[in-house]
User: What shape does this take?
Amino acid sequence: MVDLYNQYLEIKQEIDEAILSVIQKTSFVKGSEVTDFEKQLAEYLLVKNVIACGNGTDALQIALMALNLKPGDEIITTTFTFIATAEVIALLGLKPVLVDIDPHTFLIDVNQINAKITAKTKAIIPVHLFGQCADMESIMAIAQQHNLYVIEDVAQALGCEYYFSNGKKAKAGTIGHIGCTSFFPSKNLGCFGDGGALYTYDDNLAALIRSIANHGMTQRYYHDHIGVNSRLDSIQAAILSVKLKKLDQYHQKRQQAANYYDRELKSLSWLKIPKRVSHSNHIFHQYSILLKEGLRDSFKEYMQEKNIPTMIYYPVPIHLQKAYEKFNFNTSDFKNATFVSQNIISLPMHTELSTEQLLYICQTIKDFKA
Assistant: This one.
């Protein structure tokens, strides 16, 4: 699904030199590489503040911790996402309030958000799933109307661009109050371990986030807030600085692969290629197709026999997860997410896909007896 080794070989000298430099300086935690990377990412995103942290889940948790919420406060998000989005809400004693998805884009259905808002609602967490943006203009309008925070989950869409109706553009994660991302190795910008970051225009929020991520300290051994220990180490920051320079090139390679898939697969009646929204570009963290009902198991087995990996993101939406039964979700509210989770499947998508590989994958799919 992801060819990290061959991607490494393309930038081996730069990566090796960056890692060796950190080792030679022996400043493994909070080294200059971390602050340098934060500045570089802020410049790339055109956002004022970037705060690196240990991973994408921590980023979401720290963002919520910075909002002075109380147990029982409600956070609206999508049911069709990686568990971390809802997990941090539950961990902090808050209540996840789930919304169904658009069955074509797999993104949160903004038309259903208003109905979920109560006096206890404090924030919305839209997820920019698979590499394209949720409808942020509509979400920000709802948030402003109800005085809510917006935390963008950008784990799969770092560098994706949002297009406003007035013609302006902004990078995903820089539109709401806080953006949160992950640098897990398979992400479009991935390190060689775990890593994450938060970003915001708000200087006061940024200072609080930076403190919370470092045990609640504002100066060494003075703890003004309840915090956590969540740090991006210097080696990972050095690696990310090298790869950040290549990120737009990586996006282009993924888009080229996606265009190839689109051309070759769009005529097949038993599957639907990914729908691209008009308000965002698509950087294809995943290329996820929707199969005709009942085909997925046989299709996955067939592809495996042909030595082509596939993955299911995600087989169980949050409203059906055992750990979240206590929230008593009404399953009839999530018909789209339930259907999609039963029929979606993702094809190989990474920067090293060759034309020969794409040809083989597509021809194999065409030969499947649906």
Q: What stands out?
A: The two ends are 23 Å apart (CA to CA). The domain at 247-366 is CATH 3.90.1150.10 (Aspartate Aminotransferase, domain 1). The first helix runs from residue 4 to 10.
